[in-house]
Amino acid sequence: MGGSTYDRDVYSGSSSSGWGNSSYSASKLSSSTLDSSLLPNGKIIESKTKTPIIVVLDVTGSNINFARVVYDKMPMFYGQIEQQGYLKDFDISFCAVGDAYTDDYPMQICDFAKGIELDSHIEKLVLEGYGGGQEKESYELMAYYLYKNAKFAPGSEPIIFFIGDEAPYSFVNEDQARRFGIELDETAAKDPFNLLRKKVNDNVFMLLNPYNSQYFKDTITNAWVDRLAPEHVIKIKEQKSVVDLMLGIIAMKSKSRTLAGYIGDMKGRDQTQERIENVTSSLRKLSQSFLPTTVKGNIPTILKTGDDKPSGGHRL
After folding, report:
1. Which domain holds residue 42?
2. Which pLDDT belongs to residue 305?
3. For the chain, which ranges sit under pLDDT 50?
4. For residue 206, what are the β-bridge partners?
5. Residue 7 resides in a domain
6. Does residue 77 lie within any of the structural domains?
7. Per residue in 168-224, pLDDT tens?
8. In 3D, which of 253, 250, 275 has the Cα closest to residue 81?
9. Which of 85, 102, 165, 198 is the most buried if burial means most Cβ atoms within 10 Å?
10. What is the Cα 177 distance to its own chain's centre?
11. What is the CATH classification number for the domain harbouring 90?
12. How does pLDDT run across 264-296, given as a tens digit for each residue?
């Protein structure tokens, strides 16, 4: 079951690397026409919580089942955040991304919500299942939308997860921005991920699936490393581990757990040894970025004297 504010059955299929693809999620995520409430045109999403979470799901053909896995495991995800105390004040917005050059619904935007209300939001998503077939999807357009149209409370720490297997286009297309009612700044549109990173204190993560669920392509990986902090590009080595990876990132980012502490939590919910090893491997580089740094040697101290000369240093 889920947490105290999000109770429904969680799909309990095998923990092996195959997809859950349960009949439950398949029947729930079956919308073929986009609900008008998810249209991005003129839509502002706003959170007043301490830690807003945005999950951007690639719903093109090679990634369509990610939405089903996330839906199946959302009560566990939400419940673990509450029960383990990773976050005290949070809500979640789900967004879906496709290819704005080819798809009917390349951007779908859900409002922020909490608890069981999230189900009704996810169930509105259209899993279009197309895409352009050129190793790129419109992640950059979604990044620019979130930069322009997501609002957060002062002092908050938003976390944004992109989940997919392809690269973003190199810039935001002016016609596409106009189509979805997004005010475009030509200079800013050339680097939307940098803008988004600045907006959310660099808390943007790409959970990268092997291309077509087969293998990691260097060109795709490098495209993301060029746009995000390298340790924020997290490879999904076992398909069902996507929710475990998100939880681990949240746990470490909130400083409620080290990687070792989070692995202990995974053992507590009876995850397989294979899953634990895969998650540990994927999160190791990120975990190292959270470790305190040690400075050795003398650090000059500037004194407010007449000539502002350094006067020696202090041993640390």
Report:
1. 23-315
2. 38
3. 1-3, 12-21, 299-316
4. 162, 233
5. no
6. yes
7. 999 999 999 999 999 888 777 889 999 999 999 999 999 999 998 889 999 999 999
8. 250
9. 165
10. 22
11. 3.40.50.410
12. 999 999 999 999 999 999 999 999 998 875 555
**Mapping DSSP to helix (H, G, I), strand (E, B) and coil, where does residue 54 land?**
strand
Q: Which of 181, 112, 108 is nearest to 138 (CA)?
A: 108
Is residue 174 assigned to a domain? yes
Between CA 266 and CA 286 the distance in angstroms is 17
Amino acid identity, position 96: A
Structure tokens at 187: 């200079």
User: Which pLDDT belongs to residue 293?
Assistant: 58
| Distance of alpha carbon 65 from alpha carbon 18, whole angstroms | 11
Q: How high is the pLDDT of residue 297?
A: 54
What is the C-alpha separation between 240 and 215, in angstroms, rounded? 16
Burial per residue of 288-312, b for 16 or more beta-carbon CB atoms within 10 angstroms, e otherwise: eeeeeeeeeeeeeeeeeeeeeeeee
Q: Are 240 and 278 in contact (CB under 8 A)?
A: no
Total number of domains in the chain: 1
**What is the gyration radius of the CA atoms in the chain, in angstroms?**
21
Tokens 């590009």 correspond to 233
Q: Which two tokens stand for residue 26?
A: 């398949």
Helices and strands in the chain, H and E counts? 11, 12
**Residues in the chain, how many?**
316
pLDDT attached to residue 19? 37
If one counts every other C-beta atom within 10 angstroms of the C-beta of residue 134, the result is 12
Dihedral, CA of residue 148, residue 151, residue 152 and residue 154, to nearest 10? 80
For 77, the token pair is 């995800």
* Joined tokens for residue 200: 């959310």
Q: Is residue 126 part of a domain?
A: yes
